[in-house]
């Protein structure tokens, strides 16, 4: 069930973000992601509109929007491939006319996921935090 984020979701959301970030970005040292955990807790998540996917009392994924930016979408590694990410992205599409995001070019699975959900590449750039190439992608409601 997708529902709005509640304060007691914070720790599960952070754990999902860290585990999924490390798994999806094997080209970036895990220590980088761990060093960003406090920023996620104190800066990024409080600024976002967030929904979680909860099943049998456990948060298994989340999507975070900041305006029209899809700032984060992550699914617990143990739950990936079961449609949770698709459900979360569809939730985001119901509340926005347009969505933009950035994704590391080397994260082929995520790039393919976004393309399947109607996102198109609008530009390429370097991530200022890691120096890795990333794609800016956008989706627009028809």
Order of helices and strands: EHHHEEEHEHEE
Major beta sheet, strand line-up: 1-2-3-4
Spatial shape: globular
Helical proportion? 25-40%
CATH architect. name = 3-Layer(aba) Sandwich
- Kindly report the name of the CATH homologous superfamily: Gcn5-related N-acetyltransferase (GNAT)
Number of helices: 5
CATH class: Alpha Beta
CATH topology: Aminopeptidase
End-to-end C-alpha gap: 26 Å
Radius of gyration, taken over Cα atoms and rounded to an integer in Å: 14 Å
Mean pLDDT: 97
Give a nutshell description of this structure.
The protein is built from five helices and seven strands. The chain is of the alpha+beta class.
Structural description of this entry:
With 142 residues, the chain is of the alpha+beta class. It has one domain: Aminopeptidase (3-Layer(aba) Sandwich), CATH 3.40.630.30. Helix content is 35%, strand content 34%. The protein has 5 helices and 7 strands. The strands form 2 sheets. The protein has a 4-stranded antiparallel beta sheet, sandwiched between helices. Strands 5-7-6 form a 3-stranded antiparallel beta sheet, with helices on one face. A hairpin with a 2-residue loop joins β2 and β3. It is globular, with a radius of gyration of 14 Å. The two termini are 26 Å apart. InterPro entries: Acyl_CoA_acyltransferase, GNAT_dom. Keywords: Acyltransferase, Transferase. GO terms for molecular function: acyltransferase activity, transferring groups other than amino-acyl groups. This is GNAT family acetyltransferase. It comes from Stutzerimonas chloritidismutans AW-1.
């Amino acid at each position: 069930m997708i529902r709005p984020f509640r304060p007691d979701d914070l720790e599960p959301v952070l754990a999902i973000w860290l585990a999924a970030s490390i798994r999806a970005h094997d080209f970036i040292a895990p220590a980088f992601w761990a060093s960003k955990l406090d920023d996620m807790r104190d800066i990024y998540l409080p600024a976002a509109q967030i929904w979680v996917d909860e099943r049998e009392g456990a948060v298994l994924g989340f999507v975070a929007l900041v305006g029209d930016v899809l700032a984060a979408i992550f699914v617990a590694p143990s739950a990936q491939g079961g449609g949770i990410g698709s459900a979360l992205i569809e939730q985001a599409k119901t509340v926005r006319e347009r969505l933009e995001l950035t994704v590391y070019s080397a994260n082929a699975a995520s790039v393919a996921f976004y393309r399947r959900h109607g996102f198109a590449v609008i530009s390429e750039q370097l991530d200022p935090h890691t120096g890795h190439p990333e794609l800016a992608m956008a989706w627009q409601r028809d």
